[in-house]
Specification:
By secondary structure, the protein is mainly α. The protein is 62% helix and 3% strand. The protein has five helices and two strands, in the order ααββααα. The chain has helices spanning 3-10, 14-23, 43-55, 60-72, 77-126, and strands at residues 30-31, 37-38. A two-stranded antiparallel sheet has the order 1-2. α4 packs antiparallel against α5. The longest helix is centred in the last third of the chain and has 50 residues, at 77-126. The relative contact order is 0.06.
Length: 152
Amino acid sequence: MKIGELAKRSGLSAHTIRYYERIGLLPLADRDRSGQRNYDASILTWIRFLDRLKTTGMPIREMLRYAELRQHGNGTEAARRELLEKHREHVRTHLAELEACLHVLDTKIAGYADAEQRTLNHDAEHSAPEHSGPELSASERKPSRTRQARAG
């Protein structure tokens, strides 16, 4: 597939794909007779994996190290596993930090919800009619006294 199709299918821009190739994060693409990049569909799996590493906060230098090990093929599995295990621990630590932050947010939100409910309850208690009898129609109620303005 050409770079435009890869960009569309991967969600990366053509500029980013070329940049990733230049720094060694993506393997160099084969070229067709006219010199245009021609990618195998399997590159999409690698790009998705890189995206997961990026999303989980792996620094680009570590992603480059992993890509380099991957390019060397057999014999680098232990080093790749070690790199991923180290990153997994970083992700777990970050998840625990996020969970703690989420707990603080939940507590704060619940506090606001409780305060709003108390306000609603208070307003409902103080706006209730003071008598327990039936509601009076407008014609049955005493007219309210209004102060007449004095001329003068």
